[in-house]
Specification:
Length: 171
């Protein structure tokens, strides 16, 4: 079906697409949850993928029909077509199309996840700026009152004004 060079290139391209799917899924989950839940996600994702790719889906219970859309199953079918010349050549396009659909769907959802995280952080930053603005207003008011007191003590020095006595030596 494939020559040695062409078979290797198709195998390499399909493997790369599979790796991209898995890494994008992992990045999305890390962004949503935190790095603490990487293990839980990997166990769930690997078990759900491997459980449908070990044997034919026609022989498994109907619960496992979701496997037609899983990346491991489609990669396995591509590898069988490349290495053992099993199935039609055009079926590879169907399987790689499903893997590309995974890539586009996960990349789009990752972009949405990043956008919502940005909005959440922007709102928190805006709220902290408002809080800092109130604090800044209070500090400006206290600084202005201190300068008014300082100018008042310089203009009308009193005997008990320590600041006025200290600053008179500079003039």
């Amino acid at each position: 079906m494939f020559t040695y060079g062409a078979g290797f290139m198709v195998y390499w391209m399909c493997t790369l697409c599979g790796i991209v799917v898995f890494m994008l899924c992992l990045e999305s989950v890390i962004t949503v949850t935190t790095p603490k839940f990487i293990g839980v996600f990997l166990v769930f994702f690997i078990i759900s993928n491997v459980s449908v790719s070990n044997s034919e889906l026609k022989l498994q219970p109907s619960f496992f029909l979701y496997g037609y859309a899983m990346p491991f199953y489609n990669l396995r079918r591509i590898y069988l077509a490349i290495m053992f010349n099993v199935g039609e050549r055009l079926k590879i396009l169907k399987y790689i199309g499903i893997i590309w659909a995974w890539i586009f769907a996960v990349a789009a959802s990752f972009a949405l996840i990043i956008w919502f995280e940005y909005l959440k952080r922007f709102k928190a930053h805006k709220k902290s700026l408002e809080q800092n603005k109130i604090t800044l207003v209070y500090s400006l008011m206290s600084a202005i009152s201190f300068y008014i007191y300082l100018v008042h003590s310089l203009v009308s020095p009193s005997r008990h004004s320590v600041i006025a006595a200290g600053l008179r030596g500079f003039y």
